[in-house]
Amino acid sequence: MLQHIFTLIWNQRRQNAWIAAELFLVSILLWYLVDWLYVMGNVYYRPMGFDIDHVYEVRMAELSQNSPAYQEGAPEGAEARADYCEQVLERLRSYPGVEVAAAMTSNLCPYNSSGMSMAFRADTCLFVSSYGAVTPGYFSLFRIVSNACSAASLDEALREPNAAILTTNPEMPIPDGELLGQTLYQLGAKDSVRYRIVGVTPEIRRTAYDIPYPQVYLPFDWEKFRIDLVFCVRVRPEVDSPEFAGRLFRELKESLRVGNRYLSRVVPLAESRDQMLKANGTGNQVRTQLALAGFLLVNIFLGIIGTFWFRTAYRRGEMGLRMAMGSSRRSLYQLQIGEALGLVLIAFLPTLPITFNITIAELIEVHAMPISRFRFFLCEGITLLLLWGMAFAGAWYPARQSTRLAPAEALRYE
Predict the structure, then answer these.
(1) Are 95 and 231 in contact (CB under 8 A)?
(2) How far apart are CA 227 and CA 230, in angstroms?
(3) Residue 201: what are its φ and ψ, rounded to 5°?
(4) DSSP letter for each residue of 48-70
(5) How does DSSP assign 81-103, residue by residue?
């Protein structure tokens, strides 16, 4: 049967050449789209590394000197900031319904656009990482766990002097287990700064559209981090409600007004996420790209279906002649479907060297996902299955109709 199908395709090579040329070009374009969609889907559905359900961001602010309410001679400096930080955390932790509260530098708060990076060295491995400081409770707040211990254990470990916790970094050749207990050097500092690695957490991503990036968590020290903090609280699920943020703001607004510092806002982190994605346009950009890819896929789908529909319907007379010569309806149906699938395979195979060279030349997305054999062959397999599905959809109904015709009626088309 297979030999007969390929013989028919060869005998009709003049008519099939244009179809094969179309399928050849469409196969390359469809493979590129499949690869891009696979990479985007892989990135989007990776674990974020943290959990923001029932988490609220509590922002503090400081009055400017031009404000009528500004207090001259109010306590300033690192010690005053540290006292205020402890006071805010104490009020937040004791608020009814709050499960855990913590403070952090703004770049370590999820869905925050600020950044702070530094070069570090662990053993002989150099890397650039985002870094910042957190207070105990941070890892329990965002449900960040390591492969070896719980979030509470990470919070406790970070209480040690000069402790540091890293996220998994694929670029580091040192296994996570061997990093524990090693010395982490902060490069570029005026004095030699050393930390002891006490934990390694899974990868952390900034948004659902970003790839993981390395982070270094350090214990908070007001002498080193003279910047404003971001406070976050996790609320027990049974207490959480749409009115919780407003209620917390109203009830703590007066008690957290100390000197020139005051409670600025309380918002769910989910709302901060939506605002960040809207501000940087990442979500709209990805949706536009997906819409364009979908538009191209629909056009490819309709083009291939139309081609095989016309090709199969055009051969009704040939099918009538075959039935008159004794061929069964089932064998004719299988023959037409087999020709369509075989023609797709013949056009698809020559595209493999071209797509392979495109991959080797890194003309596809390699930043979000490295090139691998699995990725290449998976996308090629999906492309072939899609082409086969389109060819089958285009040939199925005309082939079914032609085999239902009486031989005498089908011969009218000959």
Answers:
(1) no
(2) 10
(3) -105, 165
(4) -SS--TTEEEEEEEE--TTSTTP
(5) HHHHHHHHHHHHHHSTTEEEEEE
CA 170 from centre of chain: 16
Distance CA 332, CA 322 (A): 8
Contact 342, 392 (CB under 8 A): no
| Four-residue CA torsion sign, 166, 168, 169, 173 | positive
Rounded Cα–Cα distance for residues 282 and 207 (Å):
9
Pairing of strands 215-219, 117-122: unpaired
| Radius of gyration of the chain, Cα coordinates, nearest whole angstrom | 32
Separation between Cα atoms, residue 350 and residue 347, nearest integer Å: 6
Q: pTM of the entire structure?
A: 0.78
Query: 192 pLDDT exceeds 80?
Result: no
Residue type, 40: M
Contact 19, 202 (CB under 8 A): no
The rounded distance, in Å, linking the Cα atoms of 250 and 260 is: 18
Q: Identify the pLDDT of residue 303.
A: 80
Q: Give helix 351-360 / helix 329-348 axis angle, nearest 10°.
A: 40
Which spans in 128-259 are helix H?
138-141, 151-157, 176-179, 244-252
Number of H helices, E strands in the chain: 14, 10
Q: What is the pLDDT of residues 110-144, one digit of tens each?
A: 888 777 888 888 877 888 888 888 988 999 999 99
Q: What share of the chain is helix, strand, coil (3-state, %, to 5)?
A: 50, 15, 30
Which residues, 6+ apart, have CB-to-CB distance to 140 below 8 Å? Answer: 100, 102, 151, 152, 155, 234
Reply yes or no on whether the pLDDT at 396 is more than 60. Answer: yes
Indicate the residue type of 309: W
Buried b (16+ CB within 10 A) or exposed e, 195-206: bebbbbbbbbbb
Backbone phi and psi for residue 353, each to the nearest 5 degrees, phi listed first: -65, -35
Alpha-carbon distance of 30 to 26, in angstroms, equals 6
The structure tokens listed for 291 are 């819409």
**Residue 261, beta-bridge partner list:** 62, 258
Structure tokens at 71: 């207090």
User: Closest Cα partner for 237 from 55, 111, 103?
Assistant: 55
